[in-house]
Design brief:
By secondary structure, the protein is mainly alpha-helical. Helices cover about 45% and strands about 10% of the residues.
């Protein structure tokens, strides 16, 4: 489909309402849209453009990826060189790590669900089809069998699994990238499942004698029956065969949530007010993923996150910080100064850059300030919002300072262009 005004091409997934038989089916569609919102902004994940409900269908509109399936590229070339395979696999694992970092497991990873953005030889890879994806918490176990036969992990067949199942599926894709055939093959799904349960695969027949021991060693550490012994995404990215140029530093993968929080803490107090306004005006669909994550941190269901809950939550996501670092972060994120993070402060601090730069979101945030719909934010309107947010530190501040930060033309009020320029700037202070 094509956007009438901009001419932008888009892909549209139409889901017939007649197939949404019960509330669970409806929830599955809502979850898919929510997860696409939640993961938005990553260069290797298909972008969600819009979601609509018609009389007979629900429409999910996404980036148009014209380069075709990664699977077709593999078939065309037989298999990638090890360097090609390593580059592709590194992108895939980084993408999987990003999803897991944000509490999402894909659950249907296969070459067909990695497509190329364009037909160019160096086109970026995009992960698609999050229809079977699910939010998960550390330690949470899943029972339903989902996925595709060749790529399904043994623990999924045992109905007791978590995000490690995605790593197994990635290992199967790596095997295909190197050999052109799947490691577990049979004529029927039942027979394939039997082969997966046995876990026996060949690394001796053609073409494996020509493939490096490093690559084969990596496969042996991924296609491990026990998920607890399987390599993590971070470990894979630090494996010599996967590392860029083979000598990437042995450092933990950056934690997505921690990085977003750090960016927020670096913002000045004016920009934080704008971020809070944006958090208050986002739709439920846009922030439901962050709501799930807030619940993961807020273990006592108090509606706020304490310093201890923040530390434990980040540690579970693999981020390490000293108590002092976290106290400083919490102080900066705690805009109303009550010593804890409430829901909207958490949302504001963990918004991804694509949501911050989204003009619809910026328009809604501006409208939140512009109480009388005049097209300008006045000093009085600023005072009202600051009071509403409970930002006592800002109440004591000279309002001239706030106006000067945003009022570029010095006319005593802030128009939308001035607000947009300020919020979109990369200046943190």
């Amino acid at each position: 489909m094509t956007h009438k005004r901009s001419g932008q091409k888009a892909a549209c997934k139409a889901i017939a309402k007649r197939k949404l038989i019960n509330s669970e089916d409806v929830e599955d569609v809502r979850r898919e849209v929510s997860i696409l919102h939640h993961l938005s902004g990553h260069p290797n994940i298909v972008g969600l453009l819009a979601a609509y409900e018609g009389t007979k269908h629900v429409y999910i509109v996404m980036d148009f990826c014209s380069g075709g399936e990664l699977f077709d590229r593999i078939v065309e070339r037989g298999h990638y060189s090890e360097k090609d395979a390593s580059e592709v696999f590194r992108v895939m694992i980084r993408t999987i790590a990003h999803c897991h970092n944000l509490g999402v497991m894909h659950r249907d990873l296969k070459p067909e669900n990695f497509v190329l953005a364009t037909k160019d030889q160096d086109a970026p890879i995009k992960a698609i089809d999050f229809g079977l994806s699910a939010y998960f918490e550390p330690g949470e176990r899943f029972r339903d069998i989902v996925g595709s036969a060749y790529y399904v992990a043994p623990e999924v067949l045992k109905r007791n699994y978590s995000c490690e199942a995605d790593i197994w599926s990635a290992g199967v894709i790596l095997y295909i990238l190197l050999s052109g055939v799947p490691p577990f093959w049979a004529q029927t799904d039942t027979a394939i499942f039997d082969a997966v349960r046995k876990g026996s695969y060949d690394l001796t027949g053609d073409p494996w004698p020509k493939i490096s021991e490093s690559a084969k060693g990596l496969i042996r550490r991924i296609l491990v029956q026990n998920p607890a012994e399987r390599m993590s995404a971070e470990e894979i990215l630090n494996h010599p065969w996967v590392r860029e140029d083979g000598d990437a530093p042995d450092t933990p993968l950056d934690n997505v949530v921690m990085n977003r929080m750090k960016k927020f803490t670096d913002m000045n107090k004016f920009k934080k007010v704008g971020m809070l306004a944006m958090a208050k005006t986002l739709t439920n669909e846009e922030i439901s993923g962050m709501k799930q994550m807030f619940k993961q941190f807020d273990k006592d269901n108090s509606g706020t996150i304490t310093i201890n809950e923040l530390q434990k939550g980040l540690e579970k996501k693999g981020a390490r910080s000293t108590k002092e670092e976290l106290q400083n972060m919490l102080k900066e994120m705690d805009v109303d100064g009550n010593g804890e993070l409430d829901y909207e402060e958490f949302i504001a601090a963990t918004l991804c850059q694509s949501k911050i730069n989204n003009e619809d979101n910026l328009e809604r945030a501006f409208a939140y300030f512009d109480k009388d719909n005049s097209g300008f934010i006045t000093r009085d309107e600023l005072k009202k919002v600051i009071a509403e947010f409970g930002m006592h530190g800002l109440n004591d501040m000279d309002e001239h300072e706030f106006m000067e930060a945003l009022d570029a033309n010095n006319d005593g009020k802030i128009d939308y262009d001035e607000f947009l320029a300020f919020m979109s700037s990369n200046k943190s202070a």
